[in-house]
Design brief:
Layout lengths: L6 H24 L6 H14 L3 E2 L11 E5 L2 E3 L14 E10 L2 E10 L5 H18 L8 H14 L3 E2 L5 E3 L6 E5 L16 E4 L2 E3 L5 E3 L7 E3 L5 E3 L2 E4 L7 E2 L12
Antiparallel strand pairs: 1-4, 2-4, 3-12, 4-5, 6-10, 7-8, 7-9, 9-14, 10-13, 11-12, 14-15
Helix pairs in contact: 1-2, 3-4
The chain binds 2-amino-4-trifluoromethylsulfanyl-butyric acid and cobalt (II) ion (CO).
Amino acid sequence: MITIKNPEQIGLMRRAGALLYEVLQTVAQAVKPGVTTAELDAIAEKYIRDHGATPSFLGYEGYPASLCTSVDDTVVHGIPSEQEVLREGSIISLDCGLVLDGWQADSALTVPVGRVSEEKRRLIEVTEACFFAGARQAIAGHTLGDVGHAVQAIAEANGYGVVRDLTGHGIGREMHEEPSVYNFGRAGHGLKLRAGMTIAVEPMIAMGTWRVESDEEDGWRVRTADGKPASHYEHTMAVFEDRPPELLTLPGHVWKEAD
Ligand code: MF3
Ligand code: CO
């Protein structure tokens, strides 16, 4: 079921989103060589609980942490570990979600660990460009195909693969609501967006093949099939008539002509 939120409900989601922004900034600032991914998870969980919210990933379908930490060829759903020490030159996707007063926020970004290669820096930049191109299509009357097409066009123009096995999603009282938000598609096709929809757009972009493999041991980790790095960027947003969406997990963001 697709749920439409009224302005008051969007206001509550804005509060959840603003808190999640702070959580991810705090975790991102702690990323450096020598830190373990378990330490990053602890920082996220503490920040969330100290501010009166609840981590939404923890316990979700048995997921054992508050944060997903996906390093290099891990695309998404890397489980934080005390054994996993960050090394200079890696890139890491930090994906987190929380519930505040019954409303969900979900967001991810990819950051470098120390100094990284030009090619990894570019992968991160293009993934963000894919997100902004897709997200700005999320206007009432446009379709989900418009969003996915915009993401795909930029990724493929740069020679990158769009991971297809995972998608963005509706979000509200639940972390995952309908519809699925594909990162590929045909302009003008698919579900028509309506004002008051709240969705998470989350391109997962690979330097090589878009094909991925799931880890059979932990049941969560998703890796690129060719072992090349991937990047991930996500925000929760509210859809309006006649203007690009409000990015609820990026407070203060304003759309410019050039974006
Ligand atoms: N951002 C991810 C998503 O949208 C988070 C899910 S991880 C889980 O699906 F652990 F919570 F499942
Ligand atoms: Co998500």
